[in-house]
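Notes from the 1:1 (GR / supervisor)

We went over the backlog. Supervisor wanted to see one worked example end to end before approving the batch request, so GR pasted a single chain during the call. The sequence is below; no edits were made to it. Supervisor asked that the structure be written out right there so they could see what the output format looks like.
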Amino acid sequence: MADTREKTLLEYWLALSSVEGLGSVRIKRLIARFGSVQAIFEAELPEIARLPSFNPVLASRILTVAGNFLTFRERLDALSNQQVSVMCPEDPNYPAQLKTLPDAPGILCRVGKLTEIDDQCVAIVGTQQPSTEAIDLTLALATQLVLAGFTIVSGLASGIDAAAHSGALASMGKTVGVVGTDLSSIYPARNNPLAMQIYENGCLLSEHPFRTSPSPGNLVQRNRIISGLSVATIVIEAQKTGGAMHAARYAQRQDRALLACRWEGSVAGKAKKNEAHEGPRELIRGGAFPFAPTEIDKVVDVLLHPEQLEMYMSGTSSEQMGLFEE
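Structure output shown during the call:
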């Protein structure tokens, strides 16, 4: 027997998000043109195809998924049975700080005890192969930020990400892990125990409602959610080409605060050559707020008083940036 239930808003969003090549930006363009997600599926193919950055092939894909709504309904039911909450931008539980992004995810899946993600989030990111000093700094920084009332956001990767989550958990604070896979395929697998701890004391987020492998593209894309959730992104250690640099640049594009650790001459009084220090140095040259490993209180203070950060950013000149060159 055919399923005669009325289609839900979430099913329309899931259908759109499943279309290959569509993406969040194009979905927003469709909604701006047709007024609602439901109206998109009531449009004629030529109406969609002639929109900027669309074509007949993409328009055909959009309208074709209209015949698969039973599949989307079944997937949503399966996720619900797994205690996975699925949100779209029109859901009141969808994080408000993401809604304004031009590439906000059309679908956001969440598991965990933390059901409301407020606007007091700070992202801490960095290399998967950090120095001992960087791990110590990350743990201490996450602890102090939690005590100051912030929620720690990171990507559940090895290294700095794992230390950021662990520091928050050790302080009985809230933490959010944003993954680049579906929520049943945690990557790397060795972080499954950490993911369970986050589930019990925070939440895990993914924009992938269907089984999704940890491809480089997906891992890069999840960084826009990490930075987008956060009032500030802090880079501890990162190579110039490291994944954390994507989070930093997303933060800049999203007009979020960006902070980076200035390592030179700060560890045991010796300047250390380390490729993972080059990423933060490049960000500082580009205007990121610099702090030394001994200046955790300074970081907490500027995040509690963002007007200080704004004054710094507006007053930073190329000459001032030169102070941080070798």
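Supervisor's comment: The first helix runs from residue 9 to 17.
Batch request approved.
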